[in-house]
Amino acid sequence: MTVEVDLDAVLAEAVAPVLAGSRASLSVAVLDLGTGRSASYGGEGRTYDTASVVKLDILVALLLRAQDEGRGLTPTERAAADAMIRRSDNASATALWERIGGAGGLDAAGARLGLSRTSGATAWGLTQTTVADRLALLEAVFGADSPLAGDSRAYATELLEGVVADQGWGVSAAGDGPALKNGWLPRDATGLWDVNSVGRVTADGRAFLVAVLSDGHVTKDAGVESVERAARAAVSAVGAAL
Structure pTM? Predict the structure, then answer.
C-alpha cells in the first residue's frame, strides 16, 4: 500500500529554520501545477498586509470587469496595468483601484475566485490576505479552470514575466522562468517591514505556484533574504517529495 506523503510536514521541516532567531513572521504555500497537490506552512488562515502583491488582484479584477462588459482593456487601462505590474507604479495602481470600484470591487472579484480570506482596505496596500488565497489567485492566472478568459490569463502572465530587473527578487530564487509580483512596505507604527512575493517558477521541468507572505522584518533586505530562502526551501522540499 502506498502511503501519501504529508506535504505540510515536509514543508514545515524545510521552512521552519528560515526565521530561526528572528521575530519576523512568515507563511508559505506551494502548489505543483502538474499534480495539483499543495502544501502550506505558517498557518493558512494567518493574514498579512498585501503591500504591492495586491496589484495582481487589481489587474485580475480589471480584466474580469472588462470581460463582463464584453470588451478589451482601453489603451489607458493597458498602460496603467503595464506600469502597475512591471514597475509596481503606485499612481497607476491607485487609478485602476478606483476604476475597479476600490475595496468593494476587489472583494467582489475575489469572491468569484474563491478568495475567502482576502479583504480590501481603504488604502489598497493594507488589504489583508493569506497564502491560501494567494495560491487561489495564482491558479486563476496560471490554471485552465478560471473565470479569466484565455487571452486575459495570457496578458496577465506576460506582464508578470516582464517585471523590471531590480524587482525580480523573491520566488524567482526557487526556479527558472519566473512570473511574479512582489510587495514591500515599511509600517510607520513599528518601523518594521512587510515583504511578500507570489508567482510561478519552473524547477526540474515542473511548474510551481509559490506564495510567501511575511512581516516584522528589521530591514527590507532582511525580508527579501528570508522570502527567497523560504521559496527555495519550499519548492525544493515539496518537489522532492512528490
Answer: 0.97
